[in-house]
Amino acid sequence: MNAPMQLLASLTSPYARKLRVIALELNLALPVVETAPLDDTADLLAANPLGKVPALVLADGSAIVDSRVIAAYLLAQVPGQTLLATDGPAHWHGRTTEAIADGILDAAINLRFNAAQGVTTGAWPDRQRRAIARALAALPARIGDSIAYAELCMIIACEYLDFRFPAIDWRGDQPALKELHERLTNRPSLATTRPPV
Ligand SMILES: N[C@@H](CCC(=O)N[C@@H](CS)C(=O)NCC(=O)O)C(=O)O
Questions:
Q1: Is the preceding omega at residue 54 within 30 degrees of 0, hence cis?
Q2: Which of 27, 51, 76 is the last residue in one of the domains?
Q3: What is the average pLDDT across 62-70?
């Protein structure tokens, strides 16, 4: 029998967390093989030439990479799922919200790697901070009536800022995100996937 699909991921990766949340929401088994991206393990490099987590290894040994592609794969495993519309404006709205939320992660991770090299000021870090602020400001208008894909992506991005950049006061700057977070904080998919402290 083939092994089930496995997610190569670190437990602190917010991109991987998005997939763990989606899998829980969809009731899909998604075993995680803990993988530190910076270790460049043979398994990760075989699955993803970019050396990034998350990477999804399927039962047949083939791999799917990039969290947005993996998310699309997971959603496609559950016909009739209601987390994200499969087409039409609602689909593109959800996907675009995901891209904006992921962009917050990209900019934050950029800041982290720059800081690790001693670069915390200057044009590039400032550009990342501006992108984060603008993206956070854009999210409230994207909150929908029901809790679905877009809202989960937003919360994952906001909680990553809490985890790595607690000085960014997204709650104070964007009260609608604070309110959304308060509504969602105990949702099991979110509550059980927070990074270990
Ligand atoms: N666009 C990618 C980003 C993944 C990413 O940057 N992952 C980080 C960990 S949170 C990583 O593996 N960094 C190592 C590297 O960039 O070499 C996705 O959505 O999966």
A1: yes
A2: 76
A3: 98
What separation in Å is there between the alpha carbon of 63 and the centre of ligand 1? Answer: 15
Q: What is the 28 CA–ligand 1 centroid distance (Å)? A: 23
User: What band does 196 get if pLDDT is binned at 50, 70 and 90?
Assistant: confident
Q: Which domain holds residue 14?
A: 6-76
Q: Kind of pairing, strands 55-57 and 6-9?
A: antiparallel
CB atoms within 10 A of CB 69: 11
Is the CB–ligand 1 distance for residue 67 below 6 Å? yes
Mean pLDDT across the chain: 96
Task: Reply yes or no on whether the pLDDT at 39 is more than 60.
Answer: yes
* Tens-place pLDDT, residues 105-119: 999 999 999 999 999
For residue 64, list its beta bridge partners. Answer: 56
Answer yes or no: do 106 and 16 share one domain. no
Q: What is the CATH number of the domain that holds 145?
A: 1.20.1050.10
Question: Residues 119, 151: one domain?
Answer: yes
User: Domain check: are 99 and 166 in the same one?
Assistant: yes
**CA 71–ligand 1 middle distance (angstroms):** 14
